[in-house]
Specification:
Elements lengths: L1 H16 L3 H12 L4 H7 L6 H40 L18 H15 L3 E2 L5 E3 H4 L29 E3 L4 H10 L4 E10 L10 E11 L4 H15 L7 E8 L2 E12 L6 E2 L4 E11 L1 H6 L8 E8 H9 L12 H7 L16
Parallel strand pairs: 1-4
Antiparallel strand pairs: 2-3, 4-5, 5-10, 6-7, 7-8, 7-9, 9-10
Helix pairs in contact: 1-4, 2-4, 5-10
Length: 358
Amino acid sequence: MQNLETTERDALTRIDAALDEGALEAIRIELLGKKGSISELLKGLGALSPDERKTFGAQVNAMRDRVSARLADRKTQLGDMAMEARLASERVDVTLSPRPELSGRIHPVSQILDEAIAIFADMGFSIAEGPDIELDDYNFTRLNIPPEHPARQMHDTFYLKPKPDGSRHLLRTHTSPVQVRTMLAQKPPIRIIVPGRVYRMDSDQTHTPMFHQIEGLVIDESAHMGHLKWILEEFCRALFEVPKVEMRLRPSHFPFTEPSAEVDIRCDRSGAEIKLGQGNDWLEILGCGMVHPKVIEMCGHDPAKYQGFAWGMGLDRLAMLKYGAPDLRAFFDADIRWLKHYGFAALDVPSLAGGLSR
């Protein structure tokens, strides 16, 4: 009798001292498991006389019931304690107003992207997107960039580890692979813009290893350079929010366009700020040209039937130019003071009717 009382008292003490459900489960197994101390007592009933077996068996079963009940109570207590601790740690006072200095701001690159999309959408362009990790074939070969071209060398392009067959993926150096993907998947007429991140091994005041571009592509049976010039003039006039822009196209060379051109707009550099649409200076802003017939052919279309034009520009540089940011590297420093100065209110969605950046 004394032995059973001691066993029960020790068991209940251990149960009450358990600090979590894992420890409580371990105690339950030690007491009531197949090889537990209380279960072992029941295994010895066969060696007792009938009268002793009846008395001792009833006592052991009663003790087991009390221990089981205490285990259940303690498990409930531990569960309630765990829930209270979790609620206390995760509590949020929704009545508190946010601290003004932590109010979110829209990054200038996001702002300039939304502005560009609003302008081109008004002209009837749709948005096309593609992966940042690209095939060499789409990034270079189908864009008429030969194997010996400097852009394909390691010093300019981020290549990934070669596959067993020797082929390599890369971080796209421009958004033009999306033009290839679109031409392979769609039949003309095609009218798209392609915004996205691109990667090149370059870093200084006006270059970063990762930056943002937006390109445009038009493919149909009658597109020509006159259409291209009008689109770019209207885009620049709307983006920089000036009544008129004067633009000139200088002959240039890109493997994927022929003829190719660099685009300059008239500006005034005489003061502390660059003023567009006036003055006697010129500022280069983008490259463009007629899509090379080989590119059209490699993308599955007949260059004798279809022609088109494309252009590409850096969103980061457009943001620098429009909003007066002097250093491109500051765009990626995550400095809250810089973002507070150059950022935009989250609810000021750009629109041509209400003003792009007002």
